[in-house]
Specification:
With 440 residues, the chain is of the alpha/beta class. Helices cover 41% and strands 18% of the residues. It has a five-stranded mixed sheet, with helices on both faces. The longest helix has 24 residues, at 76-99. Its main location: membrane.
């Protein structure tokens, strides 16, 4: 029992420190996961969502500290019973997520290691068994050092954990495990190779055959069932196949997807604000001078946010910003950079720098050659004769006696008839002459 207890002590202590440190490196990301757990669709505890960040910091600091306490043998009863309480709670949480298929990733190891709900539950069950061994073998757990050095190490571990949590919250995670980290090309992370494994989906077809309901399983093909009346079909994903690391990243205007267009830019700065109304006011105030300097030095600057048009316009007006903010999914913007607002600098889709709004002043922008924006073609004047698109020659061939009325539109405005025709015809007419002929 003595040796089993010591092995369990080392294994549990190290695992809690590693798991806790990974989350401590990104407490904001763990708070997003807690918000998912607290939502009405999972635990139905939405009143805790505003406190998710505070709970996140408390849990991850406690996880690291308990791991340290266990390894050095500091306050063993307090430590072991707290470990037991934590693992019982985590085991319930992961079982609930797995059984009811509520949360796809428990967040146990942050973005460093993704576990399925059942894998997370299995891991917690193993830890629960090991901690129960520690409960039974408490007498074999002795302090490594004398009381004073042990207490100093425990205190230093606690202070260091708190400081590290504060540091990464005020800047960015020290280690970035996400697909948007510096050095990654977003287009490559979104790509699906031609030889990628396809998803395997099982189809269960139900048919009524001579008054009896029967099931037929295929890989997707419609079964040939003589005298069978189709009832329904159910699908079951056996293997999801290849899943790119980035799936939902888009840059959208009100009427088109501009993702590829912007990711091909030679020098692009994205200002990420998942929710404009929740963004730090001090950070928003810093955007004007930074983005103006970036534009002056030749960078293309855009905003990314899940907020609506009213919020975007209000932001632009209030802070006198000279860039346009495009639509992007809130969860994606939160993943791109752990700051609201945050800065991401890309070169042809490759992330070359990221910064928290606290560190905007530290970004060194070198002057670059500004890209020439492609000028839209000018199709000139559109001629409509009795609501039919006509050529200039057909218009000039008319004489006054044939014309009942004529109207001229010299300027295109969004939503008018000229704008509608341009969108429908994929054209860029800049003026309109509309003629109605007399009836013979």
């Amino acid at each position: 029992m003595k040796y089993i207890t010591q092995i369990s002590r080392i294994f549990v202590g190290i695992l809690f420190i590693i798991s806790g440190f990974i989350k401590l490196n990104d407490p904001l990301g763990f708070s997003y996961k807690l918000q998912e757990y607290f939502s009405t669709d999972v635990l139905n505890m939405p009143f805790l969502e505003p406190y998710a960040l505070g709970i996140s910091v408390f849990v991850v600091v406690l996880e690291v500290v308990l791991g340290i306490f266990l390894l050095i043998g500091y306050k063993k009863k307090f430590t072991i019973w707290l470990l037991l309480g934590m693992i019982v709670f985590f085991t319930f949480l992961t079982f609930y997520s797995a059984y009811f298929d509520k949360v796809k990733d428990c967040g146990c190891f942050g973005d460093a290691l993704k576990l399925t709900p059942w894998e997370s539950f299995t891991k917690d069950v193993i830890l629960l068994v090991l901690i129960l061994i520690l409960v039974a073998g408490q007498k074999y757990i002795k302090p490594i050092f004398k009381p004073l050095p042990n207490a100093i190490i425990a205190l230093l571990g606690f202070i260091a954990s708190l400081w590290f949590a504060y540091h990464v919250l005020m800047h960015l995670p020290a280690i970035d495990f996400r697909a948007y980290k510096i050095g990654n090309n977003l287009q490559d992370e979104m790509a699906v190779p031609e030889d990628a494994q396809k998803p395997i989906i099982e189809y269960t077809w139900k048919f009524n055959v001579n008054g009896e309901e029967k099931e037929f399983v295929t890989n997707g093909s419609y079964p040939d069932v003589p005298n069978g009346e189709y009832v329904g079909v159910e699908t079951n994903e056996i293997d999801p196949g290849f899943i790119p690391k980035i799936q939902d990243f888009t840059i959208e205007s009100s009427d088109e997807n501009l993702t590829s267009y912007f990711l091909e830019k030679e020098n692009l700065i994205m200002v990420a604000m998942y929710n404009i109304y929740n963004a730090e006011k001090e950070g928003l105030a810093k955007l004007k001078s930074f983005t103006d300097e970036a534009i002056k030095k030749g960078y293309t600057v855009i905003g990314l946010s899940a907020s609506g048009e009213e919020a975007k316009q209000q932001l632009k007006t209030q802070y006198n910003l000279n860039f346009k903010t495009y639509l992007c999914d809130e969860k994606v913007v939160k993943t791109i950079v752990r700051a609201n607002p945050g800065i991401v600098i890309l070169k042809k889709g490759t992330v070359i720098n990221k910064a928290h709004w606290n560190d905007i002043e530290d970004i060194n922008l070198v002057e670059v050659e500004p890209e020439e924006e492609p000028q839209p073609k000018d199709d000139g004047t559109l001629h409509l004769i009795d609501n039919q698109i006509s050529t200039k020659e057909e218009f000039e061939a008319l004489n006054e006696s044939q014309i009942e009325s004529m109207s001229v539109l010299k300027e295109r405005k969004e939503g008018d008839v000229l704008d509608s025709i341009n969108k429908k015809q994929n054209a860029n007419y800049t003026s309109l002459i509309e003629i109605k002929l007399k009836n013979d």
